[in-house]
Amino acid sequence: MIKDSTELNSAHKAFTPTVVRSTLPLARFHQRIDEKAQDRSAPPIVIVALGDSVTHGLAGVDEFLHEETYHHQLKRLLQNRYPLSIFNVINEGVDGQSAVDGITRFERSVAAYQPDLLLIAFSLNDAAGLGIAGLDMYASHIETLLRRTRKETSADVILLTPNMMLTRENDSIPDCYRFLTQRFLRLQLDGVLAVFAQRLGEIGRRQGVPVADIYAAWQRLSERGDDVMDLLANGLNHPNRRGHALAAETIMQVIESSNISERIESI
């Protein structure tokens, strides 16, 4: 039994997959899926979810949705889609943290696991803590995470834009979080969070890294008349099970659309 990250890292490296770094999005990840399906002795596909409280699974005050986080639901989607492979998902979300914290703990939280896929999900705390004036700093931190991923691992990466925050005052906000209401409301209604999501998309296009645009998925629901507040667990910024499901489905769409072999077979 593998008991810690050192043993996990050693076991993962013991198997040497016949892969090379490709310029195609998620090419290595799909190749690992194929290898595991064809060779049961190959190690499982390892996915690390690096992020903030949403990744952590925080819903309300000391309330966690461990079994319903977007990455846990993504694992179920992947297992159903690729039943001959095995996926291990590691939750490296920490509530209250932002992209710079991801850099600080990168060696322990990412490199130590040598994942096949890294999900990077920072924006909510960055937007709240840095504001629009800190947009360039946020972008720099994300680009540093991408550089370190390329340098220290062989992982493919998917960048995740944030979910939307509250769009109006409501009674679902816990009393201990109520002081954040106006601040977060302005981040949403003034378009600050949207700008952070847009910058993340620009980074992805420039770096050739897939982006799961979760913000856009929420926005589409809002534009068609759905109340996105129904997707929040705390009435403020943390998604509920349905909000996490929307994120998982958005990531899965990115993964499936990048499967070049299946796209060729369908022609």
- Main-sheet strand order equals 4-1-5-6-7
Secondary-structure element order, as H and E?
HHEHEEHEHHEHHEHHEHHH
Q: Count the helices. How many?
A: 13
Output the radius of gyration: 18 Å
Beta percentage is 5-15%
Helix amount, in percent? 40-55%
Largest sheet: 5 strands, parallel
Q: What top-tier CATH class fits best?
A: Alpha Beta
Structural class call reads alpha/beta
Distance from N terminus to C terminus (CA atoms, Å) equals 44 Å
The total domain count is 1
Which regions have little confidence, pLDDT < 50, spanning 5+ residues? Answer: 1-22, 263-267
DSSP summary, beta strand count: 7
The assigned CATH architecture is: 3-Layer(aba) Sandwich
Mean pLDDT: 91
Q: Assign an overall shape.
A: globular
What CATH calls the topology is Rossmann fold
CATH superfamily: SGNH hydrolase
Describe the protein's architecture and organization.
It is built from 13 helices and seven strands. By secondary structure, it is α/β, with parallel strands linked by helices. The strands form two sheets. A five-stranded parallel beta sheet has the order 4-1-5-6-7, with helices on both faces. The longest helix has 18 residues, at 135-152. The radius of gyration is 18 Å and the shape is globular.
